[in-house]
Amino acid sequence: MTDALFVSDRGNAFSQAFEELGFTCHQVTPGAFGSPFCMPCKLLIIPSGFADPKYYKITSAIERNADKIKQFVERGGVLLVFGAMLDDYTYDWLPMKLSYHMKFKAVDVTLADPADPAASFISPGKLDCDGYFTEWDGNVVMAREENKPVLISKKIGEGYIVAAALHQYPSKQFLEWACGKDRCACLI
To answer: Between the CA of residue 158 and those of 22, 74, 79, 143, 161, what are the distances in Å?
Structure first.
């Protein structure tokens, strides 16, 4: 078992950062994602730029496993999905309404809901954002100028979907929540 799985065909951008904070993060390739070779985890990460083939070639694997992703969250897992890095993108494969617009910029990010468990993702302030969300049916946790959401959280079943248009690694506090001892490891 691992704390987190990172869906990638280009290596693991999260492994070292997670290890420095005391957590494990393994890469799962698109071919193994959703298969019996995909190990249980508490946190599933879909990287920034996942929808743009110049960065990753994982979109078809994600779409093919939409039902498994939903079941993972319902059973208590946390899905952390980043910005698509396309001008406009609708996350049709998620069990919630979510649309995104790309606009990369360092901006002032404010905390909209400090009581949400995803509020520990990163401290607000001047942060790099790759865009913002234009439609959602979750909770706005953080926003940039003009109240444009950059961090959305939605509880589904026993787990959560956390959508981030932030270009940051999650904090240790966030990982303690998402990968904590109380959270069960679920299969994808």
So the answer is: 24, 5, 12, 25, 11
Structure tokens at 131: 């865009």
Instruction: Tell me how far apart the alpha carbons of residues 40 and 188 are, in angstroms, rounded to a whole number.
Output: 7
Chain center to CA of 7: 11
Residue whose token pair is 């679920």: 186
Q: Which helix (H) or strand (E) holds 70?
A: helix 66-74
Strand pairing class (159-164; 148-156): antiparallel
Q: What is the Cα–Cα distance from 9 to 28, expressed in whole angstroms?
A: 8
- Residue 32, judged by CB atoms within 10 A of its CB (0-12, 13-18, 19+), counts as middle
d(CA 180, CA 176): 5
Place of tokens 């070292």: 16
**In tens digits, what is the pLDDT along the chain, a chain of 188 residues?**
799 999 999 989 899 999 999 999 999 999 999 898 889 999 999 999 999 999 999 999 999 999 999 999 999 999 999 999 999 999 999 999 999 999 999 999 999 999 999 999 999 999 999 999 999 999 999 999 999 999 999 999 999 999 999 999 999 999 999 999 888 888 88
One-letter amino acid identity for 95?
P
